[in-house]
Specification:
about 70 residues; mainly alpha; 4 helices
């Protein structure tokens, strides 16, 4: 997924810049992606997450969230 460009291929993230995604609860990740999509969450100064999440459907958000939950 596009997530790897910033969060790394294993979802480990880069401290301070990009948070760790690997192993995050699927429900939490889905709620954050939905927040970015609706612009309720807007703490991404370059709007990158809002743009990416804005292109995802609900089923895609669920699939990405489940995938991320399985990363270790």
């Amino acid at each position: 997924p596009a997530c790897a460009g910033c969060h790394g291929p294993s979802g480990a993230g880069l401290p301070v810049q990009y948070p760790r995604l690997a192993g995050q609860y699927a429900e939490y990740t889905a709620s954050q992606l939905m927040g970015f999509r609706s612009h309720e969450r807007a703490n991404d100064s370059e709007k990158m997450m809002r743009v990416i999440a804005g292109k995802l459907s609900d089923p895609q958000i669920r699939a990405v969230s489940e995938y991320i939950a399985g990363l270790r």
